[in-house]
Design goal:
18 helices; two-stranded antiparallel ribbon; Serine Threonine Protein Phosphatase 5, Tetratricopeptide repeat; 45% helix; 452 residues; mainly alpha; globular
């Protein structure tokens, strides 16, 4: 993000493009026209920069998306002790349609999608170099696919997906009413966007999305969909060819001012730019937080019967309350790792187990790679029968240990048909409501079941 500071001063452009694409709002009088904003190659580049900055705000990938998913799916493993009512509604599964945290999440994702769409609508302005045009297109498709994936995971209900917009909006004076597209149509776009990104992005791209960022996200999406062979192939390719490697120790994967060796995609945070809302709610005051709104309970520690596993001790006591807080967020200017290589090992392990294959490595070997880095006792292969050694539950528990407090809880529960806090995986309470502000301004949209 250090390289973005100057370009983000393109303020008028950014202001006119950050309004949510689904909100029926008029562009402010001082905004420049959409035609002018996209008139040159330099302007289109700046829209892409603005899309990254928008996505990295605290309302979404700056932390709110991750901890809201944790609060929805963690059950008794964490507890909300903060004063804000909106996150507490998520914990109790009694969410109101005017929940502001959820509305900001929705609006921010559509603002990012709109900027990505404007870039894609104006690729003809990129005349300097075909490879540069591919890079810009690939990054825009990556961001759009990422945002739609998290929108449909959090707001999709059965066959009802979310509003699907694939054209940028620059004129907010027209009727923007739009109902929800089928879930299948949303996933079709996500998969197409990410595959195109894999095909046209470079193998390395500074801290921006590259070929392996897109392929890693493609692995995550296909795991969610149950497309295990595709997920396995993508995860395996990332492990073998991305050049990333696990950090030498578990703590090295977090609180980094620069991307770590295992970051496949991370949002950049500095003292001048970027936001880390995970710090705000997971950390105490000395580490830049509010004192520790989200605490780790004894129930989470029951996952660690192995005293050698450093992940079972990667916590600290709040200086204010003495409550147990995760050590993953203690640097208020640390980058937010959205996709780590460790996840790819776990995806490859699960998909190989489900398919009874050993592409790249056996499921046992991949689990032990993750456990060895954490100092945990290695799992043993007694009789070369994979199913006797480990199970899907074994891998799920390893995911809970390795990926905790990174926004995975609810999605693993829903895709595996589990329950949380007495609610089945398909319960209405485990899906966010369409924000009331969207219902009020978009008469074509349908609310999720269970919400009035």
């Amino acid at each position: 993000m250090r390289q973005l500071i100057n370009t983000l001063s393109f303020g008028l452009l950014f202001c006119c493009l950050t309004a949510c694409g689904d909100r029926l709002e008029l562009a402010p009088e001082q905004s420049i026209s959409g035609e002018l904003a996209t008139a040159t190659e330099a302007n289109v580049r700046n829209i892409l920069v603005g899309a990254y900055a928008e996505a990295g705000k605290d309302e979404s990938y700056g932390g709110q998306m991750q901890f809201m998913a944790d609060l929805l799916g963690a059950g008794d493993r964490i507890s909300w002790v903060g004063t804000f009512l909106d996150p507490r509604q998520v914990v109790t599964k009694d969410i109101l349609t005017d929940n502001n945290f959820i509305a900001l999440f929705w609006n921010n994702h559509y603002a990012t999608i709109n900027q990505a769409n404007l870039v894609l609508d104006n690729l003809d302005k990129i005349e300097s170099d075909p490879e540069e045009r591919n890079r810009i297109e690939g990054e825009a498709r990556f961001l759009r696919g990422l945002c739609y994936f998290d929108l449909v995971r959090h707001f999709g209900s059965g066959d009802m997906g979310v509003p699907l917009r694939t054209t940028g909006i620059s004129d907010y004076a027209v009727d923007l009413s739009l109902d929800r597209s089928p879930t299948s149509a949303i996933y079709d776009l996500i998969l197409a966007d990410l595959q195109t990104s894999v095909d046209i992005l470079p193998g390395s791209n500074s801290f921006f999305a590259d070929e392996y960022s897109a392929q890693a996200l493609l692995a995550r999406v296909n795991l969610q969909l149950g497309n295990y062979e595709v997920a396995r192939t993508a995860a395996n390719n990332v492990i073998l060819n991305s050049g990333r490697m696990l950090t030498a120790d578990y703590a090295g994967a977090f609180n980094n001012d620069e991307n770590s060796t295992e970051d496949l995609f991370a949002f950049q945070v500095t003292s001048q730019d970027g936001q880390n809302d995970l710090i705000n709610h997971y950390a105490d005051e000395e580490n830049g937080g509010r004192g520790g709104d989200i605490i780790v309970t004894d129930a989470y520690l029951t996952l660690f019967t192995d005293t050698l596993d450093v992940r079972g001790d990667y916590f600290y006591a709040s200086r204010q309350s003495g409550n147990r807080l995760t050590g993953k967020y203690s640097n208020q200017f640390g980058n937010i790792a959205l996709i780590r290589l460790a996840e790819m090992y776990l995806i490859r392990a699960e998909t190989n187990l489900r398919l009874d294959t050993e592409v790249g490595a056996s499921p046992l070997a991949d689990l032990n790679t993750i456990r060895a880095r954490a100092g945990a006792e290695l799992l043993e292969d007694d009789d070369d029968n994979i199913e006797d050694d480990i199970s899907i539950n074994t891998i799920l528990e390893e995911r809970f240990r390795e990926l905790a407090f990174e926004g995975f809880f609810i999605h693993d529960i829903r895709r595996l048909g589990l329950s949380v806090d007495g609610f089945d995986a398909d319960a209405n309470e485990l899906v966010f409501p369409i924000p009331q502000s969207e219902i009020d301004t978009n008469p074509a949209i349908t609310q999720n079941p269970g919400y009035n």
